[in-house]
């Protein structure tokens, strides 16, 4: 399992102003709020999404997805709060369905660790922006960007010889679902992930490799986990070796989900605090953002209080229906 690092800005849609605003306090207030209906209202397809803080940790959360066929049968939303969900899950299920997200209190930086089949950053991005809309922050959206040093990607794009291409794909996302449906005649759940291998018929498919990477950069929500190749830099000398590029080339640390002495949350906290490169890449990211407003935004700051999340979802839905009928 890997811990991937991201930064983010908040954009005001009507004016296109960009704000440096840390959402750690906002999510902490959301967690403390008593609005169970709001916390239980998030879905992605047929699956429900929950965000709940891990007990004993300041800014580390479980980000859980459940399907109607399994976990939902054991989660009774009427009898306990969302924060109790983790107590209902077996340890194996936590690994299978739960991502861990850690937020910096100092900068707009987060890190996410998720296994195969667990919700990833794109799902959390949709979740966060849906939360904004549900509580009335309709004019704001959060934009996440991978903290990335492009040298690895640049190095791969400069390979002179590519003999084979490997693509690891999440079976539950994007093209993974489409591919399985074509193979099996219908979408089949429970596969997890699979690897596609592209072989050369003429000895060198470096142009195809470059096109795949470029396409993956343009559309990051296709379900591709990582791309690799058997390649070498020099056409005349050297040995073909396997090279891998994780999707988006995100700055990452390794996490051992089977460690007995340290929990995943403990490992995440340690890795996060020790990774000085994250701050360097964050500063680089900010320097490349023109006209970012670092002053406090009163509208956003208001949601650092739990009572700001006491919204009536039914009333909001009725208002939306009225607007659409008009």
Residue share in β-strands: 25-35%
What's the pLDDT, averaged over the residues?
Answer: 82
Oligomer: single chain
SSE string, helices as H and strands as E: EEHHEEEHHEEHEHEHEHEEEHHEHH
Describe this structure in words.
This protein is an alpha+beta fold. The protein has 2 domains: 2-148 and 252-325, no CATH class; 151-248, no CATH class. Helices cover 33% and strands 26% of the residues. It contains 12 helices and 14 strands. The chain is globular and about 65 Å long. It starts with a strand and ends with a helix. Mean pLDDT is 82; it is low at 321-326.
Short descriptors:
326 residues; alpha+beta; 2 domains; four-stranded antiparallel sheet; 12 helices; disordered C terminus
Strand-helix topology:
Layout: E1 2-12, E2 17-19, H1 24-32, H2 36-39, E3 43-44, E4 47-53, E5 60-66, H3 85-88, H4 91-97, E6 98-103, E7 109-113, H5 121-134, E8 140-146, H6 151-157, E9 161-170, H7 174-184, E10 193-199, H8 206-218, E11 224-232, E12 241-246, E13 252-254, H9 264-274, H10 276-287, E14 292-293, H11 298-301, H12 313-325
Parallel strand pairs: 2-14
Antiparallel strand pairs: 1-2, 1-7, 1-8, 1-13, 3-4, 4-5, 5-6, 6-7, 9-10, 9-11, 11-12
Summarize this, please?
The protein is built from twelve helices and 14 strands. The chain has helices at residues 24-32, 36-39, 85-88, 91-97, 121-134, 151-157, 174-184, 206-218, 264-274, 276-287, 298-301, 313-325; strands at 2-12, 17-19, 43-44, 47-53, 60-66, 98-103, 109-113, 140-146, 161-170, 193-199, 224-232, 241-246, 252-254, 292-293. The strands form two sheets. Strands 1, 2, 3, 4, 5, 6, 7, 8, 13 and 14 form a ten-stranded mixed β-sheet that branches. Strands 10-9-11-12 form a four-stranded antiparallel β-sheet, with helices on one face.
